Amino acid sequence: MTAPTLYPDTPLLRQHRLPVGGGHVLQVQEFGRDRGLAAVMVHGGPGSGSSPLLRRVFDPARYRVICIDQRGAGGSQPRGEVLHNRTDDLLDDLRRVREHLGLAQWLVVGGSWGATLAVAHAAAEPAVVTGLLLRATFLARREDIDWFFQGAAAERWTAWERFASVAPTAQRHAMLPWLASVLHHGDPDEAAVAALAWWHWEQALAGTAGRSTPPVDTSTLIARYRIQSHYLQHDCWLTAPTLLERAETLPRVPTLLLHTRDDRVCRPEGVQALQARVPHSHLQWIDSGGHDVAHPAMIAAMVGALDHYADQATFAPDP
Questions:
Q1: Measuring CA to CA, which residue among 36, 156, 57, 59 is closest to residue 106?
Q2: Digitized pLDDT (tens) for each residue of the chain, 319 residues in all
Q3: How many helices (H) and strands (E) does the chain have?
Q4: DSSP per residue over 59-89, as a string?
Q5: Could you state, in order of their start, the residue ranges of all structural domains in the chain?
Q6: Catalytic residue among 76, 112, 229, 281
Q7: Which one of the listed residues 24, 43, 259, 291 is annotated catalytic?
Q8: Is 291 a catalytic residue?
């Protein structure tokens, strides 16, 4: 049988500019069928914004897909702004968007940081969630953050050494604080160098190096990583309660966890810890693909799961 592939992109159904306080205005876009199954796609990052690929895992004939650019990200304004931009703000924004659209419930789909926010949202508003599809879940623990910036140093990766070389020698043991300082307070040229180094390291760790190119406009990367460093320096405001503690209160709705065995950004032991806290969830392993949302195996798993949900209101088990 041929593996499922991305659906063709479809024209914009409608777009909203939604003021949410603190000077922030969200860009909210809808795609697919007006009377389709409501699904919110929660993008990663933080700070990355929505992309066409994320919505193309949904069958546009059966889903009404809501794509929200989180505060400061994508088409939301002001771009790169970190004031009034914390996890609780993003959770409030999900409620505001849902109420603005007149939706009582929706399917929640997210990957990486998007999966983090999806779990926190479902724990905060369990009655509004009909199902959870979580790809490459990030738990936002200090150990997860430290691994990304410093863990690979012990392995003497050439890619990590190249990444760290942009920082002064005395700062290389603490890359995140140095990057945050430069991105928030450095001059534009310094910030561009730091952002490009972060991007290249992220691609190397994700397994996508050589298959994509950074944005020509480095201000896009600077804005993205300014927000991301803001969140990561504060453990994403998910320490009391932690994401795992919140996960214990998730509603008993269809919940599918998709994770590759070789993900080096969100390592497999994290999703195993999550499943242990959510016993009604189903964990589907994908043998390879790293942290690449565009990997054919991950795309096939996402599309197959969402097609099955549209048919059966549940997710397909492992093949």
A1: 36
A2: 678 899 999 999 999 999 999 999 999 999 999 999 999 999 999 999 999 999 999 999 999 999 999 999 999 999 999 999 999 999 999 999 999 999 999 999 999 999 999 999 999 999 999 999 999 999 999 999 999 998 766 665 788 889 999 999 999 999 999 999 999 999 999 999 999 999 999 999 999 987 878 887 899 999 999 999 999 999 999 999 999 999 999 999 999 999 999 999 999 999 999 999 999 999 999 999 999 999 999 999 999 999 999 999 999 664 4
A3: 11, 8
A4: -TTTEEEEEEPPTTSTT-BSTT--TT-SHHH
A5: 14-140+238-312, 143-236
A6: 112
A7: 291
A8: yes
Q: pTM for the complete prediction?
A: 0.96
User: Among the options 69, 263, 292, 307, which is catalytic?
Assistant: 263
Distance CA 186, CA 316 (A): 49
Pick the CATH number of 14-140+238-312 from 3.40.50.1820, 3.40.50.10610, 3.90.1720.10, 3.40.50.970: 3.40.50.1820
